[in-house]
Each structure stands twice: as C-alpha cells, then as structure tokens.
Amino acid sequence: MSNSITYPGKFITLEGGDGTGKSTQARLLNEYIQANFNTNVLLTREPGGAPGADEIRELILTGDPDRWDAVGETLLFYASRRNHLRLTVWPALEVGTFVISDRFADSTMAYQGYGNQLGVENVQKIHDVTVGDFEPDLTLILDIDVARGLARTQGRSHNEDRFEKMDLSMHERMRQGFFDIAEKNKHRCVIVDADRPIDEIQSDLRAIVKERLFS
Ligand code: TYD
C-alpha cells in the first residue's frame, strides 16, 4: 500500500472528457519541463502505463458498451491503476523523476462514479483500498462542451471507442463530476478551457505548472 510518503518527483495528471486534446497537451508539457527545468520526465497514460495495465486496457476499452457494468469496469480500472502505480509511477517518483499521466483516478470518479452513476462513495471505497492517501501534486482538467468534444473524437480511426459510444447524458454527468472534483480538491486541481487553439491551452498549462511546481 501507499502511503503518505512525499516523493522527490512530482506527479502531474491531465484529466477531462473525450476529445479535449489531453494527449497532445501532455506531450507538449513533457517537452517544456524537460527543456526548462533540468528534470527527467516520464509521460504515461491510463488505462495502461505498465504491461499488465495495458492488457487490462484492451479489455476495458474495446467491444460492446454493455460488456462491463459500472462495478466490474471500476474494478478493472483500479486493477490496472494499481499495476501502473506499483511498476511505473511510484518507482519513477522515488528517484526524482516527474511523472505526467494522461488520465488517473479522477477519470474513474467522473466517468464511473458520476457518469455511470456508481456513486462517489462506492468509487471512493475502492480508491482508498487501491491508492491510499497518494494523490497528484497537480491535476489539470481540460474542459470542453460535451458535444464539441465528442465531435472531435469522430475523426479518429480506432476501436477503443466503448466510452465514446455511450450516451450524451453520461458524458454530461461526467463533465459535472470533474467540476465537483475540482471544487473539492482545490489544492491540486485547475480547470482549463480546452475549446481553444492548442498553443493557447498549452501556454496556460505551462504557466500553471511553473507557478505551482517550480516557484
Ligand atoms: P483513451 O483512448 O485513453 O481516451 P482519451 O484519449 O480520451 O483519454 O480512452 C480512455 C477512455 O476510458 C476514455 O473514454 C475515458 C475512459 N476512462 C474511464 O471511464 N475511467 C477511467 O478511470 C479512465 C482512466 C478512463
């Protein structure tokens, strides 16, 4: 179990709905930190980020939307998260590497807890057993209107679309979920408007990272 250890590295998570451009922003942020702060950075993602977690990713994201119910899905996300933390994230933070994760636990709270209505308390119980007190040093939540975000995902050719196929109301609840999470976790969360050009969003993210983690 972890733990309330303070690691020498910092843990940054990018969160938000589908089609917010998180992955592009995470990659650009990685370049910025490496170039400006003389720090090793590991870019990773969830679900995935370790071999076992990647196998679980396949199970969760492909196939029929009804393949898993909210409980089963949440357990799979947390099994993959535990694997990712134990084998990738914690070892990197221990040696002073910064870790940027494209999605982390706030996604489960927002999608399964709020979106699929498993409920905050139920997700929190599983979270407490799996993750303990460990939390990101900074969480950047990219926010976009649900319909606009989903429209942006339509051009992608991939089969990992179980969530994109779910109905709009699920996505609306998920977006509200991120607002609630940000409100409850002001010490680590910042909401950023993602309905803007990539470079504008990135320059906001860089300013936040600089101010919160390097000043
Ligand atoms: P991914 O292809 O990584 O999408 P994105 O580029 O939008 O991050 O697929 C992740 C999908 O899984 C996405 O629709 C959100 C969902 N998800 C959850 O529902 N719960 C979770 O805990 C995580 C990590 C992701």
Topology:
Layout: E1 11-16, H1 22-37, E2 41-45, H2 51-61, H3 70-94, E3 98-102, H4 105-115, H5 120-131, E4 138-143, H6 146-153, H7 168-184, E5 189-193, H8 198-213
Parallel strand pairs: 1-3, 1-4, 2-3, 4-5
Helix pairs in contact: 1-8, 2-3, 3-4, 3-5, 4-5, 4-7
The structure holds thymidine-5'-diphosphate.
Thymidine-5'-diphosphate (TYD) is lined by residues 18, 22-23, 46-47, 61, 77, 102-103, 107-108, 111-112, 160, 163.
Describe this structure in words.
This protein has 215 residues and is an alpha/beta fold. The chain has a single domain, classed as 3-Layer(aba) Sandwich (Rossmann fold), CATH 3.40.50. A 5-stranded parallel beta sheet has the order 2-3-1-4-5, sandwiched between helices. It is globular and about 45 Å long. The mean pLDDT is 94. The chain binds thymidine-5'-diphosphate. The site of thymidine-5'-diphosphate has 15 residues, from helix 1 and helix 4.
